[in-house]
Amino acid sequence: MLDCIVIGAGPGGLVTTKELLEQGVNEVVCLEQTENLGGVFANTYDNLVLTSSCTYSMFSDFWMGDGQQHRFWTKQEALDYWKRYAKHFGVFDKIRFNRSRYLATTTVQRRKSN
């Protein structure tokens, strides 16, 4: 039985899943309706450039200090970073892709905590 289900493998879902794992919630799954992680960014136009610099786009626990922190990431650079983050923290294995049907038809039951 799962302890927690995280909806969406965008930046917020990745961080949430990572934090749950670090707190000992091992029976967690992250459901993503598409075939890629990245949330809304994954389905935008290919020439997208983030409006925040790398410094503000990176997560504080996964700093990629390559000397170019003042650049603005392209869509692909952001997606690559999030994928490295997910793999580094063991989140990638918890993601279940192409789960839109599951999200629309599954009921959730709340379990009482002790």
Description:
The chain is an alpha/beta fold. The chain has a single domain (4-105), classed as FAD/NAD(P)-binding domain (3-Layer(bba) Sandwich), CATH 3.50.50. The protein is 32% helix and 16% strand. It has 4 helices and 5 strands, in the order E-H-E-E-H-E-H-E-H. The chain has helices at 11-22, 54-57, 75-88, 100-105, and strands at 4-7, 28-31, 49-53, 72-74, 95-96. The strands form 2 sheets. It has a 3-stranded parallel sheet, with helices on one face. It has a two-stranded antiparallel ribbon with strand order 3-4. The chain is globular. It starts with a strand and ends in a 9-residue tail after the last helix. The mean pLDDT is 88.
The CATH architecture can be given as 3-Layer(bba) Sandwich
Distance between the ends: 16 Å
What is Rg?
A: 15 Å
What is the name of the CATH superfamily? Answer: FAD/NAD(P)-binding domain
Question: Could you tell me the number of beta strands?
Answer: 5
Helix content: 25-40%
Would you give the CATH topology? Answer: FAD/NAD(P)-binding domain
Number of domains: 1
Strand content: 15-25%
Which shape, going by the Cα principal axes?
globular
Mean pLDDT: 88
Class in CATH? Answer: Alpha Beta
Provide a concise account of the structure shown.
32% of the residues lie in helices and 16% in strands. The strands form two sheets. It has a three-stranded parallel β-sheet with strand order 1-2-5, with helices on one face. A two-stranded antiparallel ribbon has the order 3-4. The protein has helices at 11-22, 54-57, 75-88, 100-105; strands at residues 4-7, 28-31, 49-53, 72-74, 95-96.
